[in-house]
Design goal:
globular; mainly beta; single chain; 9 strands; 3-stranded antiparallel beta sheet
Length: about 80
């Protein structure tokens, strides 16, 4: 959206779940977000063990103050 701040917009897809104590509790609504990866990485609270996804190592992240802008129903 903005090349100067690297602001991106996106939407989670069906298959987003609320997880508690390592167990899936229920599906959650899909989220639209607007966020800069620079700000997001600055707000990382915790990193997990990286997993290989399509040839890249990607760690699970817990990020505070992530900017969600709207909700839509999950299927």
């Amino acid at each position: 959206m903005d090349p100067q701040t690297l602001l991106f917009t996106g939407l989670t897809r069906d298959g987003t779940f609320y997880i508690e104590d390592g167990k899936i509790k229920h599906a959650v609504k899909n989220f639209r977000f607007n966020e800069s990866p620079i700000i997001m990485l600055n707000n990382v609270d915790a990193l997990g063990k990286p997993e290989r996804i399509q040839g890249s190592l990607v760690p699970p992240m817990r990020v505070r103050d992530f900017t969600f802008t709207s909700l839509s129903d999950a299927v």
